[in-house]
Sequence to fold (841 residues):
Amino acid sequence: MKNKNWIIVFTLCSSLLFFGIALINIVIDPFNIYSNDGMYVNNQRFANAGAVRTADYNSVILGGSLTENLPITQLNKMFDANFIKLAVSGSTAYESRLFAQKAFKTHEVQTVVSPIDFFAFRGSTTRLHKTYEFPEYLLDNNPFNDLSLYVNFDTFKYSLKLIINAVLNKSIGKFTTDHEDLFNWYRTDKDKFSYDHFSKAWENRGELSEEDGRSYNVNLLETSFRANFLVLIKNNPNTQFHIYFPPYSSLMYCLFIDDKPHFIKEIVAFKKMVMESTLPYKNVHLYDFQTATHITTKSENYKDLSHYSPAIDQVILKEIARPEHYKVTKKNTLKKLATFEAHLNRFNRSQMISK
Amino acid sequence: MLFNSYAFIFAFLPITFFVYFYFNRKHYTVAAKYWLLLTSLFFYGWWNINYLPLILSSIVFNFGLSNAFKPSNSKEKNKLLLITGLLFNIGILGVFKYTDFFIQNMNSVFDTSIPFLHFALPLGISFFSLQQITYIVDRYEGLAQEKEFINYAIYVTFFPQLIAGPIVHHSEIMPQLKKISAKVLNKKNITIGLFLFSIGLFKKAVIADTCAIWVNAGFQNAETLSFLEAWITSLSYSLQLYFDFSGYTDMALGIGYMFNIKLPINFNSPYKARNIIDFWQRWHITLSRFITTYLYTPMIRSLNKITFPKAMVATLLAMLIAGLWHGAAWTFILFGFIHGIGLITNHIMRKKKLKKLPHLLACTLTFMYVNMSFTVFRSTSLKQSAYIFKSMLGFNGLTLHPAFSKLQFLHLDWVTFNSDWLFKAGASKTTIIILVILLVTCFIGKNSTEMIKSVPKLSTAIVASILFVVGLFYLSRVSEFLYFNF
Fold:
């Protein structure tokens, strides 16, 4: 074969393949970017990037694994709303902000429910999850870079599976019509809320790397909170924000205390800043479940050091529906913080580790 | 700019290519040279424009210094110029790459708390520094001479080899660029170039970046990996590193061909090596050549009397430096030490004329040794390596899929059955199949340089276009080339 012909064949084949596959991806649109057929791929970050644009909703749940299990039907009843869950496993504050901003841009959002999870605020303001790819380009304001989703082999694999399913009436690939099904880890982990799992998690705790240790710096937490969360409250005064400090196990704090002697002071300072900066807004309803020591000191409420059981979600929802014990107000801020700090200083880890 | 980016493939490369040959066709050869230099600097500055002044001042200094070498100079003067050149290039490398490492060790040895300087590592500094060292030494030896600044600047910045090699000699590039035939479009070279680029893109974007998923997950969970997870992690990294770096080199060679420049081969099926000496003759060949020519040989030359033990000490020293060149951490020095010991062992075996091992056994042992060294290479600390080795040796037990639960009758305490059996390495059953296929390909498959002999065929055009498009469709998972950090 002549070199000239080789170049022509190569160019023709490449162009045909490239545009052919891209066209299939655009037509099938497996991530529901342009229209929503209610079929979601088993990838939280990409499924949500589509859902946030095209699903039908008027309220959102933000956050990470701690809100992945919040029951939508219950929240819908409580608020007479239509919630969508934009929580994703291991979410960073920046990822949450991008989802929220897109939701505010494309929908009238009445209510936001979100934990103030300090893990999410660590590190840089624009930190993404280390392992999971995050489609920032689908959540920005540039429609042209969305095309890279269609020049993507993973998209093609999903498109092919959807075509096969439609043509052969099969169900290959991991798709679901239940958006909530993408998030609920209680279904698989329901038997793990026990002393055994909890103590194993403590035994297997890794050492805090130097990089991780630095990323929990109170200044970084504050900067990220202001840039990624407070800005949402400020810019959307007509949306009600129900936000809460989630009840991690008391033992969880020991991970940090062992490594950073000033950690208690830092975490208290962070909470104080959150309280002081959010409470002036009338659309904020703030709750602190970290003082609920009857929850946080019982290992059977947890599957590991921070993830709690469905029963604790019910405590949270009950409080949001009818505030009794955990609502933070301008008046009780200092008392709440003092109780929290005193508990951490007094907490005896052996009460959770030993049976 | 990355080779594996839409900006490079759809804009930078075609524009640079067509304008370069357009100028040459119109006999604007000087303009073509300046165009090549300008685009190479643009390619370099795309990532971070702040890096540009450093590389430019380095080029200007080295060019000025090299022109001060004259036959009429006294020997001492030329030697002084050589030492100045070496100190300058090693100094730049040292300041930007090793200052914090030095401070860190000072702090831990003397219990001081000198603050880190946190210099940003300029892109490709390890490569352009070495390349300029080769030129200065060659100039001192009278083996190279470049009178025109533009030619020298192109030699250093020619974009296919600028940021991750191959490390080329002046004599390998410049005579080719100066040839009249190099200024004319050459269909054969374009064919080979497109073929190599497609293979390289596939290797990098599809294979290496897929292996990276298992590597990242495995190293993140190093402390608690089971036997199989640890092996998947370790083997995946050896494959990732190979396909990443050789993929990059294939792309660099391919682009070189398009511009009628034949860059030196950097990889020659390294995992087919029978021993560590053989390995370094196949892996990052231009670095091996640099180590031999510019580290090992001068050390040997400086000895009054060469003896076998002295030569072995020089080998170990050269490999320790080579290890450190890869990065500022003790894990890299240990990597160099492991290879130094490997080389010495091979030399002793040769000297004692020990019977050669059967081919398959020799290749397997060599690969296992290299694989171990790469695990150290990838680890962020020696502790992390130790965790992985511990699991690879079975100290963390073996976890199998529940499908194997029939084996329970053996009552082996160290075997457990769990559906998450490969979870901590982010892997699945398919991972094992893929790794086996990749390993077999590395052991028995032809490498890309061997494949170009059969290029102008219909089948290769179709295969190359498929590899190219699949590679393109994997680009949304853009990641950096591993060697850019070294």
